[in-house]
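fyi for ur records
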Amino acid sequence: MNGVLVALTLLTAVACAVVAGVFFAFSTFVMRALRRLPSAQAIAAMQAINAAAIPSVFYFTGFGTALGCVALAGWALVEWHEPFAPYLLAGSALYLGGAMAVTVAFNLPRNDALATVDPEGTEAASRWSQYFPEWTFWNHVRGAGALAASAALVGALVVG
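which gave:
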């Protein structure tokens, strides 16, 4: 691995781990704390969190990490004969598919639907009871994807 590839791989691996950490925090205590609140308060809090997430440093970290993964995947295909290439490709695929695609396909649509809920409305409690387990499950999946991506990229550094 040359210096540029090492730097890009290290930076992207750390960024994947940061994203995984945020997802881990949500899965392990943020969502549990929201579950303890009355549904109106939980919905209002989650709506505020979602509104603050875009744009934010976290949003740009996730997007920048995706760009890093695209670059690493391309590099892996060009350097496929190198022992580190499968690790780069696997790490990129895990992040892009396991974290970003899951976010776009499962978490964001639920956030968009929750944004339309009146926290004090008659449907609020039932909407929250549906939202909470579904969103949390997919958050676990995307967290695992980002963590696995980080591990694979570290593997590329070790092999390379």
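Helices lie at 3-35, 39-53, 57-78, 85-115, 124-159. thats all i got for now
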